[in-house]
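Please fill in the sequence for the structure shown.

STRUCTURE ENCODING:
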């Protein structure tokens, strides 16, 4: 699957949640398996303030706003499924498995998946970036750090819209969620933070 298809597919699911119906036949199967998404997404949108709701919906309905920016970023061969279960060690050698989604993607994509998908609270984001930069540069390659980090932020929007919101919103906002209230509030705080991250990155992009 092409990189942009992951993003557009995720946005199409959120569009369907907003519209209250499946916009493509394959989405109906997803909604059948996740019947709480439409109800909870309506509650979630009303929970946002007007500016947040406007920006978020603008991105959901116009994924090319981000993809056009990413089209100008550096690309490389990426694993594209780099998270904890697919990473291991063979003696002292790093081992990656499950290469079925390998393809050409933005250079920051694997690092984004790796850092966001492997719990490592002692390694701050900036430190993780530096480990990557030094590793690449030790091989004789140069990294435009400013451009790379900008791409990383754009990928954050893609991950949030394509994956995180459709998974998190039903847990916190569905009337059928079985989570205790304190856990719902914890997830809502996290959602608030990622929405702010999306808006900050969006505002940065629109100023360029």
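FILLED IN BY: designer on duty
SEQUENCE:
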């Amino acid at each position: 699957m092409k990189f942009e298809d992951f993003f557009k597919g995720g946005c199409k699911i959120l569009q369907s949640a907003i519209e209250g119906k499946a916009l493509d036949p394959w989405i109906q199967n997803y909604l059948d398996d996740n019947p709480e998404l439409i109800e909870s997404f309506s509650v979630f949108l009303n929970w946002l303030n007007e500016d947040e709701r406007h920006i978020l919906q603008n991105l959901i309905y116009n994924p090319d706003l981000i993809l056009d920016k990413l089209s100008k970023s550096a690309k490389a061969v990426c694993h594209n499924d780099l998270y904890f279960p697919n990473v291991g060690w063979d003696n002292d050698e790093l081992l990656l498995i499950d290469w079925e989604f390998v393809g050409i993607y933005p250079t920051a994509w694997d690092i984004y998946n790796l850092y966001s998908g492997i719990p490592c609270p002692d390694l701050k984001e900036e430190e993780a970036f530096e480990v990557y930069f030094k590793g690449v540069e030790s091989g004789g390659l140069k990294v435009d750090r400013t451009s790379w980090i900008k791409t990383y932020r754009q990928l954050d929007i893609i991950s949030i819209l394509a994956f995180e919101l459709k998974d998190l919103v039903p847990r916190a906002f569905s009337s059928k969620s079985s989570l205790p209230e304190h856990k719902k509030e914890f997830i809502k705080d996290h959602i608030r933070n990622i929405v702010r991250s999306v808006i900050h990155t969006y505002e940065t992009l629109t100023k360029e």
